[in-house]
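seq:
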Amino acid sequence: MAECNLTERIKFEVLEAGTTNENGFTEERWTTYYACWAKKEELSGKEYIKLHGDHTEILVGFTVRMCEKIKKVVAEYETKRYRVIYRDRVYDIQYGHDVKNKHNFADFKCKLVK
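struct:
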């Protein structure tokens, strides 16, 4: 029996080797790595003032069922190489781990980018 309700559809994207444009700048290219069902959990919405501007930082958690592709994301621990797309919003992965070391679920803490 599942320990959580996986009711939200998310997509993991991976950063591929960038291409150089005509101006000599490297362009990022994100491609779909894996799509799966997840449980979304609101962790915090923190507002702060930085250099006379208001900023909001939204942190969320995504819990997904463990599989070989998710094991690779957790094991590599390259959080800047992967990101999560949920309802057309981009989330940077801050960290990911195996829930209770049981190898059934993985938990990712993410920050909303846009």
